[in-house]
């Protein structure tokens, strides 16, 4: 099964996205399809033995007329140029429309107020207005007719058809009234050209604003793409060569000077530096890097000259994976979207039925029952008393068509998801789309894995207790000398601590590991060392005093692993090693508790160690000695009790539990984002990002709800107003022009509301 | 294309039917002028054609 993303050109409404999805799903071999109207991107999953992305793309283009470019073939610069071209075109259309619409208004409204004092008389001539309206319809207005025609030709209906019906009808009424003023449609007094002209001008303005704001939705990805480096200096045949980034191979030695970006992911082979990783991880402070440390492509080498070995290139780099992750995320729809999809999918049908009913009501009943000569449209020059009932009913029907375009409904969810996921990505919080956002916003229980999540996962030296004649440094020096060659994590912790204290380690002449007990070693100075647990000491008949035993028990009670050091048969000291808490674990746990989440720690470790760690950070509920395979079962039990569970753990080792949880949060993923099981991936090893991620999810979902509420309320209020529900009492109506203005601003207001998410500040940075 | 053509024919037939129905009802209503019926018929034809096309497209 293949999954391929693609770019779409030519979408103008949510129903376009729906049409492409429906069409793609019906193609042979295609199992799923998703299209995001806000980001103008889509993706299909298909059986590669039956079809291919090129066949699907061609199918969509041939059948529906949208231009489909598979993502693999896209050129970001070309994409940006195409977007800029679209903005320029709509801006020019808008300027052109208003240059014509203003004199049309001046001519039509000449009778009103002070307009006659500066509006020349010839502008009021209906032939002049016709002359001015025609280029507006044929120029900027043409796109709606072409879109509607293309849709009908390919057997589908979209928003263009609504607009084309409305503006076309107004224009034709104008032509008929101008050429045949006595036919009975109101004559030259009510030419309707200004209705057609203003409708088009407002709709073009709306489209321009929509494109401008829609572009902001995919800005984050464009920014990430802009981080890519174009060239790199690589050591080839003993000399430095500048080559394009595509020519770098895995294993190449790449040279990066201070101030330059690392072109791809790799491991430092020579040099020492500080690296600005903020663009990928959101970490604001530079990170120190030395030999054998990993570097991420697109991060900035600040201080030192570095030689590093390329380990990941092209689509395997972390940057490429993040971009891919976000693009996929923006296509994953939350359940709440289904309602909006249903509305968008049916709106052409429903609105035309509604428009038909409104027409029939006003034609047969309403006009004769409620019309009075004083009736008027808001902000319109049309003298309603001059038009017959049929024209009146058609005008109301047109207004319903125009006002009810649910562009805002179509934009509400995808634009918020795009903004939310992009905001997270900026700070190293990758959220796998709308579904993950929706579930994360409902979480009430957070289950934290212990090792590697709450703790560093690597034992560190915590205590040195002298019980004989040696001081603490001497104890550490001897123990570290004995453990120097050991690969055991406990030994490594001691050696690390000794080196940190700049202690000089003695050479050893004999070393023997005693599995499960400790080690036996002879230092060059002739000292015979035993370092290990009680069993080792018992086996060697080394007696532990009551006070040593008491100290051992105290250390073990704190969840630490205590080792005894005996030199030449005498106990000299105790060394304790423990997995220590990560820097921000305590802050994160306290904040999560304060926010009202039920916390639970899950670990495979023994009860005592687990309780010790839990005690340090104040977690009451501990599930210890849980085998990795059973972690998922424990999560399931919680879910059966009605909890909505977020599991925080290692993305690869805890994969089953992360998958079982309602939201899996993988922390400190390194560079293998693609392999992660979590719905939320925290790039940084900072537990406080759990709070940031859950909070961002809540805020994004709130934004989606707000958007949907405003979009629906707009239609719920606008449609009855346009249908003339208030007319029998208040004698005024919404004119088609005003309907166009409302429609344009409804989608803009939804997008602007979404853009406020960009101003959202994370609690912890 | 075959499906599209079939949809178009069915939709046109439906729109024509609705238009005739409109004319019939309008003609039987007192005080409705001919031009009102002409305009109304055109509008009913257009809207019912689009409704029929949308319905056909869904099947």
Question: In words, what does this structure look like?
Answer:
The complex is a heterodimer of chains A (765) and B (59). With 765 residues, chain A is of the alpha+beta class. Among the domains of chain A are: 2-73, Alpha-Beta Plaits (2-Layer Sandwich), CATH 3.30.70.100; 249-312, Calcium-transporting ATPase, cytoplasmic transduction domain A, CATH 2.70.150; 444-454 and 582-661, Rossmann fold, CATH 3.40.50; 458-580, Calcium-transporting ATPase, cytoplasmic domain N (3-Layer(aba) Sandwich). Chain A is 50% helix and 19% strand. Chain A is built from 27 helices and 28 strands. In chain A, the strands form six sheets. A seven-stranded mixed β-sheet of chain A has the order 15-27-26-25-16-23-24, sandwiched between helices. Chain A has a six-stranded antiparallel β-sheet with strand order 6-5-7-13-8-11, with no helix packed on it. In chain A, strands 17-22-21-20-19-18 form a six-stranded antiparallel β-sheet, sandwiched between helices. In chain A, helix 1 (14-26) packs across helix 12, helix 7 runs antiparallel to helix 8 (193-217) and helix 17 packs across helix 18. Chain B is mainly α and 59 residues long. Chain B is elongated. Chain B starts with a helix and ends with a helix. The relative contact order of chain B is 0.18. The chains are: A alpha+beta (765), B mainly alpha (59). At the A-B interface, helix 7, helix 12 and helix 13 of A face helix 1 and helix 2 of B.
